[in-house]
Amino acid sequence: MCGIVGYIGPKEKKEILLEGLQELEYRGYDSAGIAIIEGDKLNNYKAIGKLENLREKTKAYKSEGFGISIGHTRWATHGKPTELNAHPHLGAYSYVVHNGIIENYQELKVELQAEGVSFLSQTDTETIVHLFEKYYNKSNDAFPAFEETIRRLEGAYATLLITEAAPDTIFFAKNGSPMLIGFDKDEVYFASSDTPIIGKATEVYYLEDGEYGYVKEGTVHLFDSNGSKSFTKQALTADKVSAQKDGYRFFMEKEIYEQSHVMGDTMIGRVLDNSINFEELDENFFEGINAIKICACGTSYHSALTSAYLFERISKVRCDIEIASEFRYKEPLLTKDTLFITISQSGETADTLEALKMAKRAGLKSLSICNVDNSSIVRESDAAILTRAGIEKGVASTKAFATQMMVLWMLTLYVGQEKKSISKEVLHKEIDAMLRTPKALVVTDELHAKLQRLSKRYLHGHGFFFIGRDIFFPLALEGALKLKEISYLHAEGYPAGEMKHGPIALADSELFTIALMPKTMHYDKIKSNVEELSARDATILAISPEPFDLADDFIQTTYDSHPMLEFFEMMVVTQLLALEISVRLGNDVDMPRNLAKSVTVE
Fold this sequence. Notes:
By secondary structure, the protein is an alpha/beta fold. The strands form four sheets. Strands 3-2-4-1-10-9-11-15 form an eight-stranded antiparallel sheet, covered by helices on one side. Strands 5-6-7-8-12-13-14 form a seven-stranded antiparallel sheet, covered by helices on one side. The longest helix has 22 residues, at 563-584.
């Protein structure tokens, strides 16, 4: 999500920036902008929507001679997709672009506003440029002012800053969000991944967390907490597709690893200290709503199924789940006190879109949960909440599912707040667990290596059962779907308690059972179900924080203080297991046969 480019040198800068931003489109964005300083003249252009809109705005502009320049593609986190919220952000005489999250931006904003600073946007990024100018106005020295600014920032960021106070210099800093520097003779490039500078730069340096500095006259001055430091350049790859994968073998693998980062984007501005906030929803949005009906397909259907447990348990609101392709033909009973929610990664899923149109014709209020702004489902809905997952290129959905689940979890708390059906104690407990979710999504080297080793034992046999109870039953369905999508092996998800009602007849040593055994939810009951399968010689892979003696294989999880933390950690395990089995079978992980990323037909 979001992309940064920068260039300092004599070439035409507008085209370098626009071409670089185009190479970053795969990351996802809803607005874009550039800023260029030539001599003492600063030019700035922004546009919402696709890059074509920015190209149209800048078609009469050309940059000539030496100059400094920065550009950005933004995926909305703080504030809606508007030109005011688009980067670069302007101070009195400086511009900044930024990827990541400034966690203490509200504190900084209040401080700056108290000193008379006016903010134009709703973003966290704008605090950086105003903070810089505050310190520059005191010292009249740009680099110390930038250093002091960086010291005040908390959170993840990759940022570039240019200023009329130093019109021959680009200032940069990196902490927790990727950024690199490219080199070609006396020219210097910046980007958030390799692709924008391939074919332009010949060497590259990948910035490490905590590094910052400035570029002037073709020379990079690099610093960290210990002061000035040297660095070693390396040759730049020429393969753009490989560069987009950021060193991962597949986009799906990259997207599994990204989940811990994008979850922060999903929550930012929404999960507050003592409440959940959705600026997308009017304060009376849930007025007159006594029931919820959710319609979705595939992976989105599984996130919906999980949320039904949460809506009824936490919000105390009846929640019914429908498969969109079936809903359209069942002549459903629809009452106007029902909120109709649709979930779709792309926002173009044909069955879900048609179900939404049916609900609207029946007079129901509608809400969409989607990853793509301005998509058909978003436009058709009364309100929309974006998941902010960034573009997902792997056909088998991973981070889209994770972010859908987080939005639905947040929404259950929001509804509970609005209807006063949730206590402050429960709300605080849920928010505390939410804030720890990104850590539960981190993929450790040890976990991935273990699943790589285990995968060789699960390449044959007559099928897989993924089993779980409560919210872990929909996760079992999702785990089975991931496996069948990319490995082409038969897999089913089942409620653990239903095995004895028929499916256990299939149990033998060639039946692989993936058992989701959370400590926080019905552990003893699912343990009994797994023991029944083990007694019939099924091969058991147990995923649990609690060691299980009867398991043939065991993946020990860490988070056992809240069911949703266990849910997300086990989700990562099932995703990686599917990935590694598919890799061993020699399949195309990102483009599995017969499937498409966006299903726009019935």
